[in-house]
Amino acid sequence: MALDEGREACAAAVRGFTGAVDDLDELALLGASRCHGWSRLDVVVHLLDGWSELLGALVSPVDAAPTVDAASYWTAFADGPGG
User: What positions does the domain Mycothiol-dependent maleylpyruvate isomerase metal-binding occupy (predicted)?
Assistant: First the structure.
């Protein structure tokens, strides 16, 4: 995927997310989400924490060369939780 295409896909995902939660009031955020056992607020906090980690990692310099690319990174999780 080209950088510009990836950038726009990420921006579109963020716009979609914010569009989905912008109009939720506090009571609605406490309601059940589609993630079993999680409130909508739990999901929002989880995603914001993940984005914070991602953005921090993107600007953190490292000395070593990458050992995986964007596609091969996920093969470690192919079997799901617990292997």
Answer: 11-78
